[in-house]
Amino acid sequence: MHRREYRKSGLILEVDVKSSESRVRGRDGRNAHARGLPGAMALIAAWLLAASAAGAATPGAATPGAATPGAATSGTAAAPAASPAATPQAEFGGQCLEALAEGQHVMTNCSVTWTDKDGKLFCFSSEAAKQSFLTNPTEKLQRAREFVAASNVESTETAMQSFTGSDAEALVRTTIEAKTKANDGLYPLEDPLHGDHLKLAFDDIDFTRTIDGYGFFPDVKFHDPSDPHKKYLIDFWVVPVGGQLTIEETRIYKEPFKAEGQWTTMARQPVPWWWIPASEHPGHLATKRGWEVMSAVEQNAMRVSAENHGVFKLKDDKTGKELELEFVDTHQPVRQLDSDGHYFACTDFRVVGSKNEIYDIDFWVSDKNGTMSVDQTKVHKVPELKDGQWVQVPRYEWKDLGSSHVVP
Questions:
Q1: What percentage of the chain carries pLDDT values higher than 70?
Q2: Fewer CB within 10 A of the terminal residue: the chain, N end or C end?
Q3: H or E element: which one contains 236?
């Protein structure tokens, strides 16, 4: 067993290590399965073939600790390659960024590139693809990242078992400290929506959401140094890459808003996809279906709660006790049972009046003539106080339900 932390409640969750089943989906929605093989390996192999076919790298771009590619063993200088080879420094393994934004995996030789403001190198299959991307780089880069995350959900899920939310928070905290030290004690942040160059004062890490198969999402509190009442919540998307955690993206989740003369915070629209998973992922019918499952679960939770003055009432099938709960969140990813086709979603519910007593409640959802409906609700994990801390204790494991697969 591995542990990950539910930072908002102080709860420790016990997480099962799940088997790997990689999926690669094209724009037309067709699936290719590779049992036990991480989804990124096929892309790495394609990159190696592309790099090998392209020949030597551009002179002067030697990799530290390695011989310069293309150097002649006889001591005679090798002629420069006709076209540049994809380099390990290229984002997404040298895949075409415009193609990823459109829901396709297209390898390139990185002869056409673009470097963002952070110095990250991206490749394109053609100059036309690059120009198309540059018509809306912020939105298209976001779409590309979402597509890659959905494509590699199972391999990322497996890699995440080596880390916890605390590890992600440590990385974010170290990164913030380094940037504030280099910028007179303030954290610099580009606001792509308004085009502002923000410089914010760091307060603390509020909590961290963990989405299996997608990464860790520390939510960090900042404020405007000129007015401490103007507060920001900034999300950091942290994913495992090559055995280490890395910050994939930083985005404003909530920003200051003045109402009736008082500063408050308001969620920026559109909200980051990790808060409300988007149904607009290009070519991903399964992604839309996953969102529909979560939507059905949360609509059911809201409906039942509304019938009981905001309290979600559920009879514990083991003890017979009627639980009084408050909805917290739906876990990702959603799974589909191979035996009967039911969708299976886990959720967190807090005991009314408590702070750290969290139940894990499972929902079985079926597709009935295109409408997602909840068929069964059951207690999966119960909160128990151990050594002064609330932990979730499972009554059964998801694998006990039979074989299943991830619905990104």
A1: 71
A2: N
A3: strand 227-241
Averaged over 296-312, what is the pLDDT?
85
Cβ contacts of 243-249, under 8 Å, gap ≥ 24: 243/159, 243/162, 245/163, 245/167, 245/168, 245/171, 245/216, 246/171, 247/171, 247/172, 247/175, 248/145, 248/215, 249/142, 249/145
- 298 with 363: CB under 8 angstroms? no
Confidence of residue 289 (pLDDT cuts 50, 70, 90): low
Task: Please enumerate in sequence order all residues whose Cβ is within 8 A of that of 228, keeping only pairs 6 or more positions apart, or say none.
Answer: 201
Q: What are the structural domain ranges in the chain? A: 39-51+83-151, 159-267, 278-407
Q: Which two tokens stand for residue 71?
A: 């150097």
Task: Say how far apart CA 36 and CA 165 lie, in whole Å.
Answer: 25
- Tokens 């990322």 belong to residue: 156
77 vs 195: CA distance, rounded Å:
47
Q: How confident is the model at residue 218 (pLDDT cuts 50, 70, 90)?
A: very high
Distance, CA of 142 to chain centre? 12
Contacts 24+ apart (CB under 8 A), 119-127: 120/91, 121/87, 121/89, 121/90, 121/91, 122/90, 122/91, 122/92, 122/97, 123/86, 123/90, 123/91, 123/92, 123/94, 123/95, 123/96, 123/97, 124/96, 124/97, 124/98, 125/96, 125/98, 125/99
Residue 327 has φ and ψ, to the nearest 5°, of -65, 135
Residue spans of alpha helices (H) in 230-311? 285-306
The H-or-E segment that residue 162 falls in is none
- DSSP annotation of 47 reads H
Angle between helix axes 153-160 and 137-151 (nearest 10 degrees) is: 70
Q: Under a CB-based contact definition with an 8 Å cutoff, are residues 340 and 356 in contact?
A: no
Using a 10 angstrom Cβ sphere, with 0-12 exposed, 13-18 middle and 19 or more buried, the burial of residue 282 is: middle
Mean pLDDT of the chain: 75
62-76, 149-163, 187-201, 286-300: segment of lowest average pLDDT: 62-76
- The answer to whether residues 333 and 408 touch, using CB atoms and an 8 Å cutoff, is yes
pLDDT digits (tens, 9 = 90+) for 114-173: 998 888 899 999 999 999 999 989 888 988 887 787 667 678 888 888 999 899 999 999
Hey, what CATH class is 278-407 in? alpha beta
CA-based end-to-end distance of the chain: 23
**Other C-beta atoms lying within 10 Å of the C-beta of residue 30:** 10
Q: Which residues pair with 164 in a beta bridge?
A: none
